[in-house]
Specification:
Elements (H helix, E strand, L loop, with lengths): L15 E4 L5 H13 L2 H4 L3 E5 L10 H10 L3 E6 L3 H9 L3 E3 L27 E4 L7 E4 L4 E4 L7 E4 L3 E7 L2 E4 L9 E6 L3 E4 L2 E4 H4 L8 E6 L2 E6 L4
Length: 233
């Protein structure tokens, strides 16, 4: 008997969703190029699902859109919430047609005679003493990350748990990287190129408001980011 050559396993992956609000591809290209230019390393090669819910009844040059995204170093893998024509065109382009909705059915728990209790193993936080410099990437797998110092422009800190930065965040911070909607980012001074929690992300121009330059906490609420002030005692 020959040795088994593969295994099929289920897994979850984080995909960015590009929700189109306008079918004018020239406008989309211009605005998307500007966004990507603010954090090119984060978006490079990123798999993208195109959500067509807002323009479902409008004609769309899907082939041209796919080319635009590829030229911007994105990887368009599929569409969702499109019309039948959109779906047929996507399939002809080798793209997937995905089911996507924000409505999640409630989970009903049933009482069983035997319950398996998983013991959680405590993993101490990874601590970085000093500045994370431009070009560096730090990844704290399955734990929190604590940076006692600043995160420079062009630097990237990633954690499957929370991220604590006892200094200025000027680079990119990505918390809950493997899927954790309870993760948070804490920083003493917010001047970030990009922040992301559980797949939701904002880039610099979306952050430059009330909390810019101040201590804050960044969390995910209803699939969007929420910023709150860190009050000094």
């Amino acid at each position: 008997m020959s040795t088994q050559s593969f295994e099929l396993k289920g897994n979850l992956f984080t995909l960015s969703v590009l929700q189109l609000l306008d079918a004018d591809l020239n406008v989309v290209k211009e605005q998307l190029s500007e966004k990507i230019s603010q954090a090119p390393k984060f978006f490079k090669g990123a798999p993208i699902v195109i959500n067509l819910a807002e323009i479902k009844d409008e004609p769309l040059g899907l082939s041209d859109l796919k080319s635009i995204l590829s030229d911007l170093s994105l990887n368009p893998v599929g569409i969702c919430n499109g019309s039948e024509d959109h779906n047929d065109k996507a399939k002809s382009l080798g793209m997937s047609v995905l089911n996507y909705t924000k409505d999640v059915a409630p989970v009903v728990k049933t009482q069983t005679a035997t319950e398996v209790v998983e013991k959680q193993v405590y993993v101490p936080a990874q601590i970085i003493n000093g500045t994370v410099r431009s070009g560096q990437q730090i990844y704290a797998k399955d734990r929190d990350l604590i940076v006692i110092g600043a995160v420079s422009h062009g630097a990237e800190v990633i954690a499957d748990g929370n991220i604590h930065i006892y200094g200025t965040l000027r680079g990119r911070a990505i918390a809950g990287a493997q899927g954790n909607d309870n993760a948070s980012i804490f920083c003493q001074k917010l001047e970030a190129e990009l922040v992301s929690v559980n797949g939701s992300y904002w880039i610099s121009d979306s952050l430059q408001g009330e909390y810019w330059g101040n201590p804050c906490q960044i969390t995910q609420t209803n699939e969007s980011l929420e910023l709150t002030a860190l009050v000094k005692g």
